[in-house]
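Researcher: Good morning. I'm working through a list of sequences from a screen, and I'd like to move beyond sequence-only analysis. For each chain I'm collecting a predicted structure so we can compare shapes side by side. This is the next one on the list. No need for commentary yet; just the structure.
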Amino acid sequence: MVSWGLRVNKQIRPDILAKFFVFLFFLNFAILLIFAPFFLPTATVKDISGRVGVIDNEKTFSKFPFPWNYIYLFGDLWCHQKTERSIILNGNQSPLCARCLGIFVGLAIGSYISIFFTFSVSKEIYKKILIILAFFIPMLIDGLGQAFELWHSTNIIRIFTGMLSGFAYSILIGIAIDVVYFTIK
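Model: Good morning. Structure tokens for this chain:
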């Protein structure tokens, strides 16, 4: 059951407030990721390719002004940052590859939408979760096809599949918030 009741006794419900703060976090982070290349001198971030889970470019990023040094360090740890799979803005490579950037944009969009929906805890919740998990399939297919060199994906496809996955992640976060709220209520 989906409910639009944002207020209880003229107060904002705690689950809605939690979802709002999740939205603010992901929105601000997505904005920082998108605009980071514009706040650095043109053509100063060329090839920052690396490995996931490893900080490969700390010397380069330590020269960047705050907060862009930390945004790029996060990208260095989170993402492979392969140049051919990244978006170039202002002549600079973005902190994340196209797919990872899409994930964070999708997280912002999905967390905004989840504010307006309340997912009741019932037997039906598992069906909803299965439907939401289907949003991960395009990224899985595209990522595996590219990994096994069955095809070469484009940045538009990477952004789109990343956004679908980010959207699904944030809806699952919204469901988790609702489950916690209605369990302790």
